[in-house]
Design a protein that fits this description.
Layout (H helix, E strand, L loop, with lengths): L1 H22 L3 E9 L3 E8 L9 E5 L9 E4 L9 E6 L3 H9 L17 E6 L11 E7 L4 H17 L7 E8 L5 H17 L6 E7 L4 H8 L17 E2 L4 H11 L4 E8 L1 H13 L9 E8 L1
Parallel strand pairs: 7-8, 7-11, 8-9, 9-10, 11-12
Antiparallel strand pairs: 1-2, 2-5, 3-4, 3-6
Length: 302
């Protein structure tokens, strides 16, 4: 028995040693941004830190707990000189981090008072393959939108500097959210992208649909009265917010019709039930002919 146990235990000890070594490397919090509805953004710097879009890191804050490591998706782009995460306050550990960063105080927090942070990573996810396709569908559910913040930022940086080398030509972005709480910080990014793409006469590059899935008919009716206004009354975007859930069969058929003979990457960050639905649609809408349209499904569940 010991021969079978020694190998895995050795690998486990190596992994723990690597994590301990990484945790000792200095991480500097350069900025803490408080977003509405108790969501905070931590911008950090670490010597030798390199990332790709959609990756995640493990974070430990000794001031909150000396043993707990928690995974967070990176919301910054590789082109930026810092890396960032967005943390929504939903439990004891995140509440402790919120207070440790001084976000519960009204006065300005000095940088030297910010807590020490240990970071392990980054680690890869399926979202890294976004730039391998000419056409992609990005589907985020709730806070699952965070990896696509990194993707969209990186796309913008690449588009600004050298769009000729960018293989990715079209993005279909879907965001499903139960309420409007998460809109504030992410809508700003979409507004910036929307404005910049229009300035460069390439507004068709990004097609996005935002769905409010948790609203009843009376709430939706109130905002539908403002549907004719130039910008959406909730997000401030030109694209109007939709209510309910998307008809995935119609969405896949529409995209397949517009991109015949293409390999289309489908990327999800969301619950398992939605992953099953998108996987089935990807299979059923892919053609048997190798020269036909094919949907390649990639998922990241939470």
């Amino acid at each position: 028995t010991w021969k079978w146990v020694v190998g895995p235990m050795f690998l486990y000890l190596c992994e723990r040693l690597v994590r301990f070594w990484r945790s000792q490397q200095k991480v500097v919090i350069t900025k803490v941004v408080i977003h509405p509805f108790k969501t905070i953004e931590l911008q950090m710097m670490k010597k030798g830190f390199k990332m790709e879009v959609g990756q995640y890191i493990f974070v430990k804050c000794p001031a909150v707990s000396k043993l707990e490591w928690h995974p967070f998706t990176l919301t910054s782009a590789p082109e930026e000189d810092y890396f960032s995460i967005h943390v929504r306050i939903v439990g004891d550990w995140t509440e402790g981090l919120f207070n440790a960063c001084g976000c519960d105080k009204q006065e300005f927090q000095e940088a030297w008072k910010l807590p020490k942070i240990a970071v392990d990573g980054p680690f890869g996810t399926a979202s890294e393959d976004v730039f391998s396709y000419e056409t992609v569908m990005l589907v985020g559910a709730g806070i699952g939108v965070t990896p696509f913040a990194s993707v969209l930022k990186s796309v913008w940086y690449k588009y600004c500097h050298d769009a000729t080398n960018l293989k990715l030509k079209k993005i279909y972005f879907y965001w499903l959210c139960r309420d409007t709480h998460a809109f504030e910080w992410f809508a700003d990014l979409l507004q910036s992208l929307e404005a910049q793409m229009q300035e460069r006469n390439n507004a068709e590059f990004l097609s996005y649909n935002i769905y409010l899935t948790g609203w009843d008919e009376s709430q939706a009716t109130h905002f539908m009265m403002h549907h004719e206004e130039e910008k959406d009354v909730i997000t401030g975007l030109k694209q109007k917010t939709l209510y309910g859930r998307p008809n995935w069969e119609n969405e896949f058929k529409s995209i397949a019709g517009q991109h015949a003979g293409s390999r289309i990457g489908v990327f999800l960050c969301g619950p398992e039930a939605l992953a099953d639905t998108l996987n089935k649609q990807s299979i059923s809408n892919s053609e048997a002919d190798p020269r036909g349209v094919h949907f390649i499904f990639n998922k990241e569940n939470f």
